[in-house]
Amino acid sequence: MIPVETLLTFFAASILLGLAPGPDNIFVLAQSAMHGRSAGIVVMLGLCTGLIVHSIAVALGVAVIFQTSAVAFSFLKYIGAGYLLYLAWQAFRSSVGRIPSKPDGEVSRWKLYRRGIIMNITNPKVSIFFLAFLPQFADPSRGLISLQLLILGGLFILATILVFGGIALLAGTLGQWANRSYRVQKILNKVAGTVFLGLALKLATTQR
Questions:
Q1: Separation CA 93–CA 124 (nearest Å)
Q2: Count of alpha carbons within 13 angstroms of residue 81, beta-carbon side
């Protein structure tokens, strides 16, 4: 099965990626700032429900590719590495902005949960990201690829819950702090770009 050190590396990378400014964590932050902490938690749960769907889809699909086609695996590997390089470029050039903080009325918790699910499932970039990110931490020599990917997906979801949950709970303070500190936002963007760049290089040199 997956070595503990690999799991720890993957979990640390997942935490960093969760902290990097992006549409999902900004959405959680905005909803928490506008509707309260519980609203942010509900949105976070919706997003994580969507991640379960992506984890299962990637686990089933990537397992077949690993087992049947070296050419398909190489194609997927380089597509994934290319996409990660694109994410790194986007992070390095990303501008900073203000987070909305004015309430726009009450929204039902079910609607917020459903919004989080739909936002995640209908975003093809999440599937592509999972295809690029998860397989590089799996090893065909250590057992079923599909099981390894499901474990990694579950670990990624746990990291997302911790990070996004923390953002939701600290939304009021964090929202004001992020609005004031453009320097912090720039640093987080550079950290995200460096993480994506490192993952792209690692994926490009991965052997089947």
A1: 22
A2: 15
Q: In angstroms, rounded to a whole number, what is the distance separating the alpha carbons of residues 48 and 117? A: 8
**Cα–Cα distance, 101 to 59 (Å, whole number):** 38
Amino acid at 47: L
- Tell me the C-alpha distance between 199 and 196, whole Å: 5
119-173 pLDDT tens trace: 778 766 677 778 778 877 888 788 888 899 999 999 999 999 999 999 888 875 5
Angle value at C-alpha 165, between 113 and 24, nearest 5 degrees: 60
Beta carbons within 8 Å of 17's beta carbon, 6+ residues apart: 159, 192, 195
Per-residue pLDDT reduced to its tens digit, 23-48: 677 778 777 766 778 888 999 999 99
Look up residue 96 and give its two tokens.
Answer: 């900073």
Length of the chain: 208
